[in-house]
Design goal:
Shape: globular
Mean pLDDT: 92
Number of strands: 11
Low-confidence stretches: none
Distance between the termini: 49 Å
Organism: Domibacillus epiphyticus
CATH topology of the largest domain: EreA/ChaN-like  fold
Keywords: Methyltransferase, Transferase
Number of helices: 16
Number of domains: 2
CATH class of the largest domain: Alpha Beta
Strand content: 5-15%
GO molecular function: methyltransferase activity
Protein name: Protein-L-isoaspartate O-methyltransferase
Structural class: alpha/beta
InterPro entries: Emycin_Estase (IPR007815), Hydrolase/PRTase-associated (IPR052036), UCP036794_erythomycin (IPR014622)
CATH architecture of the largest domain: 3-Layer(aba) Sandwich
CATH superfamily of the largest domain: EreA-like (biosynthetic domain)
Order of helices and strands: HEHEHEHHHEHHHHHHEHHEEHEEEHE
């Protein structure tokens, strides 16, 4: 049982109020010393999480030498944004047109007005830059889209590898773009496309230096092939082992990040936008008890804790965009006041205003008790959230800093 008054007092002593980006300057400066800054969110449908991350990202790129944003999105769709902001996509007249590439559910995660603002800024910033800032997707879901992109490019350059790619893709055709169908067939009936995909991945890696003619063509080819390979594993494991499919997904994100790092050079600094459940160290939650890892843990292990600065986000109440079931239409839903005794409740009790905390050696021990921390996904039922939306977390071990926005509102999707 936690001592509420003690935690409220600790938060009051160590939290800093903020009303705009200028107030976040100490946090941004602390984050700027890292190689990768991981910016979280407690939901995929909250406006203030996107706008606050945008303002922090602008500062990190413009004033502290960060070179790219990598997000919890599909590689092919995000690469279209990357082309647009770097001036390589004249077919798009504006950011909203470029965001049409996000046409798979839940499109609202990236096709929204808040992201338009970020893309507009990156496009304008890059206009006079020799070294242009990039925008990339780290997720693993785009199996068919990535395979199609591999074939399109190989056909364009008349590569002899195109037939190998087509054979690998043909293996998936009977499943009619239904990943669940492939996962069941692979896991239960042993009808796997893994051999063909791995052969193609090896070929593309061996021939990566031959992929030219388009900006970042080699990077695009390698990551699309990687997506196809890891997506095959992901959908296979999704049927028989949900925890391992999670691990495949997050390991893929870190592997994709490594490819981006190689493209930009080892000294590159980048910003990662993902849900708190990905960027907050899994070892500080009950995920570790189930053998699950995530981006926050893996990047700390690979690059060293001092090279990673992770920022979690939370809210006490407000509204959010989500859906009642996977694939259902989006809805604007109410986010009820935080559950009694949760981190969000304690931070709210310390003052009903926006604030942030940075965790250092001097105060980290004060926030190490395991307490529930709200997480809202693309599927959400506010009436049931106390039964599955709070992740037991040692906040100061999970993050390097925590931003609390007391009342939040739903983001503004672009409806095409």
């Amino acid at each position: 049982m936690i001592r509420t008054s003690r935690y409220v007092e600790h938060i009051q002593n160590h939290a800093v109020p903020f009303t705009d980006t200028a107030d976040l300057e100490p946090l941004i400066k602390a984050a700027s010393n890292a190689k990768f800054v991981l910016l979280g969110e407690a939901s995929h449908g909250t406006s203030e999480f996107y706008t606050t991350r945008t303002e922090m990202t602008k500062k990190l790129i413009e004033e502290h030498g960060f070179s790219f944003v990598a997000v919890e999105g599909d590689w092919p769709s995000c690469f279209e944004i990357n082309r647009y902001i770097k001036g390589h996509a004249p077919e798009y007249k504006n950011a909203a047109e470029a965001l049409r590439s996000f046409n798979r559910w839940p499109a609202w995660m990236w096709a929204n007005e808040e992201v338009v603002h970020l893309i507009d800024w990156l496009h304008a910033y890059n206009h006079n830059q020799n070294k242009k800032a990039g925008f990339y997707g780290l997720d693993v879901y785009s199996l068919w889209e990535s395979m199609e992109e591999v074939i399109r490019y190989l056909e364009k350059i008349k590569s002899p590898d195109v037939e190998k790619a087509k054979r690998a893709f043909e293996c998936f055709e009977p499943f009619h773009r239904q990943a669940e169908m492939y996962g069941i067939s692979s896991a239960i009936y042993g009808e796997s496309c893994m051999k063909d995909i791995l052969h193609l991945l090896q070929t593309i890696h061996q021939n990566k230096k031959t992929y030219k003619g388009e900006p970042e063509a080699s990077l695009n080819m390698q990551v699309n092939a990687l997506v196809a390979s890891n997506a095959e594993s992901y959908y296979h494991e999704m049927v028989i082992n949900g925890n391992e499919s999670w691990n495949i997904r997050d390991r893929h994100m870190v592997e994709a990040l490594h490819h981006i790092e190689n493209e930009h050079g080892k000294e590159v600094k980048g910003i990662i936008w993902e849900h708190n459940t990905h960027i907050g160290d899994a070892r500080a939650t009950d995920m570790a008890d189930d053998g699950m890892v995530n981006v926050g843990q893996l990047t700390r292990e690979i690059y060293g804790k001092e090279k990673i600065f992770s920022v979690g986000f939370g809210t006490h109440h407000g509204t959010v965009i989500a859906a009642k079931k996977w694939g259902d239409p989006l809805e604007e839903m109410n986010v009820p006041v935080a559950m009694n005794g949760s981190w969000e409740d304690l931070v709210h009790q310390a003052g009903a205003f926006d604030k942030y905390m940075m965790f250092t050696d001097e105060n980290r021990d004060l926030f190490r008790e395991t307490i529930g921390h709200r997480a809202i996904g693309v599927v959400y039922n506010p009436e049931m959230e106390r039964y599955g939306n709070y992740v037991p977390s040692r906040l100061s071990d999970r993050y390097d800093a925590f931003i609390h926005i007391d009342e939040t509102r739903a983001l503004s999707p672009i409806l095409f």
